[in-house]
TrEMBL record:
InterPro entries: Sel1-like, Sel1_AlgK, TPR-like_helical_dom_sf. It comes from the Archaea. This is Sel1 repeat family protein. PANTHER family: ERAD-ASSOCIATED E3 UBIQUITIN-PROTEIN LIGASE COMPONENT HRD3 (PTHR11102:SF160), SEL-1-LIKE PROTEIN (PTHR11102). Coiled coil: none annotated. The lineage of its organism: Archaea, Methanobacteriati, Thermoplasmatota, Thermoplasmata, Methanomassiliicoccales.
Length: 197
């Protein structure tokens, strides 16, 4: 009477996640499908991933994109990122940087570091937009502040080159050391180059 009412859909999703972790992909796909049919956006996103990887279901990129689009519309951050990536690469859907940017932005605005890093790449390379090193650096800083090693490495390099940011050896070393601590081995080589080792 006073306890919280358990959401059966959430339990199906949790059971699907357990099955996936146990590598029982057929069971996971079945449960993700059940939860997705009941409107669970996390299940939709994960079902899309299973179709992209061909785990428990046939590998069908268009089906993956369909589920990511449904989950993305529901605000699921990783689905937004995966949908944006599909648009950027044209994998399973008509390639469109314009649509990719829309979905990367929605995901990045929710704080997803991989989408922030993807926007850095889009603006630094001018993919479907005018190249903008300052805007690229702004997105990269956001990803690096979340301790994403690739972003830390790239930001260290930007502080060396001064592309989109004011050059600063002190900040370059700071981010390169962080990247190295987080497993980005090439950061060690860049640090050696700075020091002249």
């Amino acid at each position: 009477m006073f306890g919280s009412k358990k959401d059966p859909n959430e339990q199906i999703f949790k059971d699907a996640c357990k099955a996936y972790k146990k590598e029982d992909y057929n069971k996971a796909a079945e449960l993700f499908s059940d939860a997705a049919a009941l409107g669970h956006v996390g299940a939709m996103s994960d079902l899309g991933l299973m179709y992209a990887q061909g785990k428990g279901v046939p590998r069908i990129k268009q089906e993956a994109v369909k589920w990511w689009a449904k989950a993305a519309e529901g605000g699921e951050v990783k689905a937004q990122h995966n949908l944006a990536t599909a648009y950027a690469t044209g994998d399973g859907i008509q390639q469109s940087y314009e649509d990719a940017i829309v979905w990367f932005r929605k995901s990045a605005d929710q704080g997803y570091y991989k989408s922030q890093y993807s926007l850095y790449r889009i603006y630094s390379q001018g993919l479907g937009v005018q190249k903008d090193e300052v805007k690229a650096a702004e997105w990269l800083i956001k990803a690096a502040e979340q301790m994403y090693p690739k972003a830390e490495l790239e930001l260290g390099r930007l502080y060396i080159s001064g592309d989109g940011v004011e050059a600063s050896e002190k900040l370059a070393v700071k981010y390169l050391k962080r990247a190295a601590r987080h497993g980005e081995e090439s950061a060690v080589e860049v640090l050696k180059d700075i020091r002249g080792d």
